[in-house]
Design goal:
The structure is a homodimer.
Chain A (H helix, E strand, L loop, with lengths): L1 E3 L2 E4 L2 E2 H8 L3 E5 H14 L6 E5 L6 H9 L3 E4 L2 H9 L7 E3 L6 H9 L4 E4 L2 H13 L4 E6 L25 H13 L3 E7 L10 H17 L5 E3 L17 H12 L5 E4 L3 H4 L3 E12 L3 E6 L8 H5 L5 E3 L10 E5 L8 E5 L10 E4 L20 E6 L2 E6 L4 H4 L1
Parallel strand pairs in A: 4-19, 5-6, 5-12, 6-7, 7-8, 8-9, 9-10, 10-11, 11-12, 14-16
Antiparallel strand pairs in A: 1-2, 2-3, 4-13, 13-14, 13-18, 15-18, 16-17, 19-20
Helix pairs in contact in A: 5-6, 8-9
């Protein structure tokens, strides 16, 4: 995204042009940025060529997943629906990993039949259920165990997943017992040790602690895992202040770790692949003078983008057309929904805005559309991909008649 | 809801029976409880016979709204979609009030054409837009102005709406100016003063303050409003500790207020009409022994019921079958979604649970299904109404094929 002659553009297509053709609100993804992210991710870890499984939950648009699949990425799925989407997007089963604490019998059966790469189990009960279904179907199933390393990811409590008070993974004692159990099973092959400590991690230190914890547990288990699945969680630069996870630094740590382990690394990145490829285009419906701030009432709402209401996330906002004039008054960007949580950002020194102006909300490619809903009976936005300066609709705007 | 021979029932239908027939998760509403709530609401305020406009946003199921409509209630809508739903459910336009801070031109035009009772405007810009459209269509439109009384509802900050830092309503100075403006307009009729200070209010005191603020502003405006729309916000007994808003007490306050004002009262209740009529039936997928608690992993998730993740709301959980045995260990009820926010309740002294057991999450009739999403590509639950001990499907379970 950059301004060309004061007009904000995505790969030379102006926001104005998109809004004129497709109305607002509209999710808009940049193929160029997607390519950059994937190239950068691959390059950062090229010394050990990991299997990169895109975390479908971050963006479930099948057409976008198709593009991601063409770069050779696999998929990390957490439900039957996500597994079906990954397959529909052309991702081969041998590149699909199934994560999640509550896989149902139906989901496990489907995954076994499709012969996906790994089912990463999160509890003893789940292992027993996979074994039961494998036995019934006379199959031998490749599984992983998700280890809970009790590491603090130093991220938001809502998206921290690697501490012992979280529901995820299995603590040391149970992990070792379960390893022994699976080794003896005729219907389960223990292939993978998996771990995932949280989301939007900006510092490499928690990952270092995680690798140390893995070293210890592998030693104690005395087992050579074919795969080590390190999950995702790599943080991106939401604030535009260049603070993001140093992938190369993380890579060095993993390389060191691999000196003692002959395993293939799996990653499950979502946000770091698609987070900054997406913008949400919106039009100012009204400007309302408040007590000590002006409310910029947008046509986009919390149903379209839930992260600010759910995690108090701050997404940068940019005007579609740059004018020189700044305002002294504080601007509070809000949506039309009847809740105080339907609020995006409070900001000083923004440029002067007028009703009907276009703005974009930045970095909404991950957990944007995938968390959207029809709250207040609002239809879901259109999704657009800009590829080689061409506009491609990859998901039509929902019709009111479909939801009334 | 009560236990009959240790089986939890809704109007004599057992939870087991519903789950067996329709699978889980399932939203289940009690017609009896709905009737009780509406009767109680009407009775509490009968001395001044208000127009009760059900807040559609709390539950957007058309079949349920049809039942509510049969009791003579109107609708409070906040979007074109909600207005269409209200009309589809058979609510007459002259009982429909349109609220919300960001009504688009399309929404205003539709509302004017349908001749709804009132468009309650929330800003000067909106009033100008309504006037512009009315003029263009050579119409005269009945409007209200939402006043922001700067009253603290003493509820959650996320659902407080009546303070001056909130986006809602219009402060005193602007209110008085706008009143003058509308009085002179040829295309607008100023019919209503509206106000809404927040949600889940348990104490009558904030309402008393609100009425005092209304008294003052009406005096200053020197105008006789045909309608006074007091909004909703009446809190319900989520904790089951008998703490809920005393409607009769509130009623007395309003009666006193009406001695000085010859106006018809409008209410916009949502939660107090449908909150406690809904339960969400779920099955235990796995029980996982954690460090100092057991995780009860359910087949229902934050996509089905967002309130705990969004507002940290606590909804009571009850077993479908009562057994005597209590456990000493803490139970943490969580969903299968890969987020730490996907958590419903942490509780001590619950009865001993086993995998495949059924439980119900209580009081989910308001802002349950209406806030649901397809996050993690999970289909939305079925919705069922129990009326006269008969089970009626009022919204089918979403199919995976519809969302993949």
């Amino acid at each position: 995204m950059k301004y060309i002659k004061k007009k904000l553009t995505i790969d030379r297509v102006t926001i104005q042009n998109i809004a004129k053709k497709f109305d607002t609100p509209a999710y808009c993804y940049s193929y160029n940025q997607l390519k950059k992210n994937i190239d950068n991710f691959k390059k950062s870890f090229k010394s050990f060529s990991p299997l990169i499984c895109f975390a479908i939950k971050s963006n479930t648009n099948v057409n976008l997943i198709k593009e991601i699949s063409k770069f050779g990425l696999g998929a990390d799925v957490v439900s039957l629906g996500e597994l079906m989407k990954a397959l529909k997007a052309g991702i081969k089963p041998n590149k699909i990993v199934f994560s999640g604490v509550g896989k149902t019998s139906e989901e496990i059966s489907f995954a076994i039949n499709k012969k996906i790469l790994l089912i990463n189990a999160e509890s003893k009960s789940e292992i027993l259920e996979i074994e039961r279904i494998a036995k019934k179907n006379k199959k031998s199933v490749d599984v992983g165990i998700r280890f809970n390393p009790n590491v603090d990811a130093k991220t938001l409590s809502q998206i921290s997943t690697g501490k012992k008070e979280n529901k995820f993974g299995i603590g040391e004692k149970d992990f070792l017992e379960l390893t022994k159990y699976i080794k003896k099973s005729k219907n389960l092959n223990l292939k993978c040790l998996s771990v995932h400590i949280g989301s939007q991690i900006l510092d490499v230190k928690p990952y270092e602690n995680m690798l140390q914890a893995l070293n210890k547990i592998i030693k104690k288990a005395n087992y050579s895992f074919e795969y080590i699945d390190l999950g995702g969680g790599m943080g991106i630069d939401y604030k535009n202040d260049k603070k993001m996870l140093n992938l190369k630094n993380y890579s060095k740590n993993i390389k060191r770790f691999l000196k003692n382990h002959n395993s293939k690394i799996i990653f499950e990145p979502g946000r770091s692949i698609v987070g900054n490829i997406g913008t949400l285009i919106s039009r100012v419906t009204y400007i309302k003078e408040g007590h000590n701030k002006n409310f910029i009432i947008l046509d986009v709402a919390m149903n379209d983008l839930m992260r600010p209401a759910l995690y108090n996330s701050k997404h940068r906002i940019m005007p579609a057309t740059k004018i020189g004039k700044k305002v002294k008054k504080t601007y509070e960007f809000v949506g039309p929904i009847c809740e105080s949580t339907d609020k995006f950002l409070t900001i000083n020194n923004f440029q002067k805005l007028f009703e009907k102006d276009l703005i974009v909300i930045c970095d909404v490619g991950a957990y944007g559309m995938s968390l959207s809903s029809n709250y207040n009976v609002r239809p879901k936005p259109i999704e657009i991909l800009i590829k080689n300066s061409k506009i491609k609709v990859i998901n039509k705007r929902q019709k009111l008649t479909d939801i009334v």
